[in-house]
Write a structure and sequence with these properties.
The complex is a heterodimer of chains A (168) and B (275). With 168 residues, chain A is an all-alpha fold. Chain A has helices spanning 2-21, 39-43, 50-68, 73-93, 110-131, 138-163. In chain A, α3 (50-68) packs across α4 (73-93) and α5 crosses α6. Chain A is globular. The relative contact order of chain A is 0.13. In chain B, the strands form two sheets. A six-stranded antiparallel beta barrel of chain B has the order 1-2-5-4-3-12. Chain B is built from five helices and twelve strands. Chain B is α+β, with helices and mostly antiparallel strands and 275 residues long. Chain B is globular. The chains are: A mainly alpha (168), B alpha+beta (275). Chain A binds chain B through residues 20-21, 27, 30-33, 50-51, 54-55, 58, 61-62, 65-73, 75-76, 79-80, 82-83, 130-134, 137, 140, and chain B through 12-14, 16-17, 20-21, 23-32, 37, 40-42, 44, 46-47, 50-51, 54, 113-118, 120, 122, 156, 163, 184, 187.
Chain lengths: 168, 275
Amino acid sequence: MNSALLGNIARFILLLFAQVLIFNRIDLFGFINPFPYILFIILFPVNGNKTGLLAASFFLGLLMDMFCNSGGVHAAACITLAYFRPAIFKFSFGLSYEYQTVKLNDVLTPERFSFLLIAVVLHHSIMFLLEVFKLSFLWEILWRTFLSTIFTLITCIIIIYIIKPSKR
Amino acid sequence: MQQIVNFILKNSNRLLFLLLLVISLSLTIQSHSYHKSKVISSANFFTGGIYERVNNINEYFNLKSQNEELAMENARLKSLLFNQKDTTKLPEIDSIKGVKKTDIIVSKVIHNSYSVFENYLTINNGSSSGIKRNMGVINSAGIVGIVDNTSPNYATVISILNVKSQINAKIKKSNHFGSLVWNGKSTGFVQLIDVPRLAGVRKGDTIVTGGQSIIFPENIGIGTIDKVYIEEDTNFYVIQVKLFNDMTNLGHVYILKNKDADEITKLENQNKKNE
């Protein structure tokens, strides 16, 4: 129990700093950045405290907003993802996901991939929509969301493979 | 009563979510209106401190280009000094002619964003060095932005590469005014809009600050005309301006402190009160 809590706190800090110091500076083709810090919300224990997750993701988003000078964009996207996470679990792993031992950081199966995909798309579309509230940029926003989603997805999968606890 | 308590207990997560959503949405909306992003910004000791530490390392990679820039500026100022024949005549160069009523504070950019629509810089001087909101920021090549939030040791700057930014500018040759905005597409170009059709514009003409605001003095360089369009609805020119500055690589900047700013704003507020 306590080690799980400590693990979550460590993940929170590590992902936040990795995001700010490394991933925010990539600027592929001038404007595409991945946002793998949402792995904190994705990898949070399935049966963990939901209220705690909501509060933690709010602060994670707020800290990101401070670093990016973006108002409350990241915070809104993060809490939406945290709130709808059980629904995405239900969609990807079937109704009884709470009783199975769903482990996300393991070999990539179609279920795990679909979960990651939906989570990343949800987070990114809310974030980019809020970032510029203007319809004149609609195509630009859709294009950026699309590219950034792909980039984040790839980064997330790579990170999951790297930190995967090696059994056997 | 019992039912209300039960309802709150049963839906505590949903209510918490809605509460947090409302908070973050209000922060978002607040940040979209110009100059209202007071709460969440990187001008605080935590984020500013981290950015400063990272920048200390990053600086070494840019030392060469920064040195070259400073040497170029030195050379330009020297040539100005030597070529000045008449002491009663003011020097011709833009960056000096305008700044007689202004103090200059030197600062350093410690964080620079240019990949989103609303870009901000963070600089490592703040209110304790006399920096206040709405001061102009330039560097040796041209304008950079306007100070937004300040903390004792740091300040954020609304970059000219920000769709919210709107700066008064003019064509140097013909003195026709327009507003400088950014369409969010390329980091090397900004747009000068609302230029009347009477203005004679030619490719390669210089665009400078207009001097109708108290933020920037007149005649600070911005860029050169790259392309000229005519907006069909309004029949005004839209001019694509190629920036002198490379906004993706900024080092030392100068903050312009207009000594008359307080007096002018006071006077203007008085007028508003009388209306």
